[in-house]
Known about the structure:
Layout: H1 6-29, H2 35-60, H3 64-97, H4 117-125, E1 133-139, E2 144-150, E3 156-157, E4 170-174, E5 188-193, E6 201-211, E7 220-228, E8 231-239, E9 245-253, H5 267-295, H6 301-328, H7 334-360, E10 362-366, E11 375-378, E12 382-386, E13 393-394, E14 406-410, E15 415-419, E16 424-426, E17 429-431, E18 435-436, E19 442-445, E20 448-453, E21 481-484, E22 487-490
Parallel strand pairs: 12-13
Antiparallel strand pairs: 1-5, 1-7, 2-3, 2-6, 4-5, 6-9, 7-8, 10-11, 10-20, 12-14, 14-15, 15-18, 16-17, 16-19, 19-20, 21-22
Amino acid sequence: MIPNNPKIRSLLLGSIGGLVGALVAALFLGDPKSLGSTAGFGLIVGALVGMCLGAGEFLLNGNTKKFVPAAAIALAIGAAGGGIGASFGQIVYQASSSQPVAGDGESSQSSGSFFSPETERRVREAGGAKGEIEISLSWEDYNDLDLYVREPNGNIIYFQEKKSLVSGGKLDVDRNADCSEQKTNTPVEHIVWDRVDIPSGNYTIIVRFYDRCSGGGQSTPFTVEVKIGGSLQTFTGVASTVKDDYEMHTMSAPFSNVSSSDDKPPAQSSSMGTMILLKIVGWAIFGVLLGVATGAPKKSVMATRNAAIGGLLGGIVGGILFVLIGKVMAGANPVVSQAIGMTTLGASIGFLIAVVEGALSAVLKITSGIYEGREMLIVHAAVTVGRDEVQDEYIGGDSSIVAQHAEIQKHANSHTITPLNGAVSVNSQPIGDAVQLNNGDIITLGKTNMMYRWRAASPGEENLDIPLLGPTTGDAPPPPRARREGTEVPTQPPGPPSPPGTGEVQTPAPPPPKPRAGNRGTEVPTQPPRPTPQGTGEVRTTAPPPPGKTAIRPAAPKKLGDNGGKTTQPPPPPPARK
């Protein structure tokens, strides 16, 4: 069973697409060498990797309604990416390894300092040693051709006598010998001398068509390259009759005006490095278009962009690994090495697409249920979540989730979640309206929990009218609430400090009561009434102190008779009105 972890899942889907694509391509095209066969190989591999990465997620999540259209989009874009990327690499290869070609039985000559890039690669991957004199024979099918060198004394260096005791020459690479199971359609043979001052005389180079093998053609074009010191000569021909010998060239020792290969700059190494770099560029193109194939079914510019970035990185990493695998498995069955290389390439692209998507997108990670570990990317301005398969994010396996359960909307630096037709909780608090989400919030839909994760989230800055649930980094906590007679009331903030030097501690006053209408249409002051002397019959009111002044407590009224033993007479009555 493929796990819900998105990185492991994408790695497995990409590797499956690469492996199956390579095997299907090998079945129909064999080991591709021409531009057309290489483009076809890339097209098949790209189509299958693209379909696995772009549509496999829908199928594994049970969303069959979206699988078919997603598969069609991903297959088409993936095939285009594979064909373009592979063709680019083949064009680079042909441009860097092209050599003059002659007709049947003819010879041509060119000069250079090292073997051609392709011959160099074949020789070194097959274990051929470097030397001052090197002769190579290469061809492009499964037939068995042999390279001979007849020395001045009549001795022949070939597969039955691989080393000459006279000149020191040695046959160290012999491919497709006896049409063995290890045969390849990129064979090479190689004879080498570690010194240039070999015994004097003529050394004749001969190519023999030893046997026609299964998969080989009726005639086999071949190339002979002769490197003496720092100079290179190339000869071509066609072997058409079994057991026939083709004398290609005679070299005469001692050699005049021959410089050591060490005196030349490493032009071949530079050429090989450039070719490898350009091949990796081809795989990078392949990866970008496979990323587009992965993101396009989501119908989002953000999803397509993020997947393309991941595909670019995966194509570079996978291309490097592909080249290394080719070197390590030199001499193995080409179908096996290509299958392993394509599997690694697909895995690299899939894994890095998932890594980049998770880093650049807002994510809902399911933390409970059968889909625990699955991550849903929020890549649209509004995303509907529910059990309906046509929704943006489908969640199955929970009968308490309805078809259109909730909606998530994107703002500049945050997201909000709004219940639609089902119950929603954020951090265990039920919500009835839009709530702004914080990085790390736990959302509950039905019986399914999921974590909201987005590094770019800036809660509280987007819309201050939308409530926040749960802790918010950097915001002050709400004031505590006090209980009074069973009713919650907000605790009043402390009043302003008392003026210095008064020695009084200012305590907050309770909220004033609502004013009531008084006599003659006047309002009763909100300050508590001041006690009045007994018997006066009047009610005194005290105006509140002016702003910024501290209220001074009034002195208590004196009682009648409390005057040092003296009796205080009440004031005379007012005169009568005439």
